[in-house]
Hints:
Elements: H1 8-13, E1 14-16, E2 22-25, H2 38-44, E3 47-49, H3 52-62
Antiparallel strand pairs: 1-2, 2-3
Organism: Bifidobacterium vespertilionis
Protein name: Large ribosomal subunit protein bL35
GO biological process, one term: translation
Amino acid sequence: MPKMKSNSAASKRVRVTGSGKLMHVGSAMRHNLEHKSARKRRALSADSVVATPQSKNLKAMLQK
């Protein structure tokens, strides 16, 4: 069975930690940062762990 290509869109949005968890960056940090307060930017810049049901599908997308 041939290997599936990795999904480049998923690799731009999700990263794998050393323990195998998937972390994703929140939305709203791509543009218009001048209009957001510093407190809001700090809160949005924090990464969060992907939910377990989603991580199974995303790990399949990230396989090389």
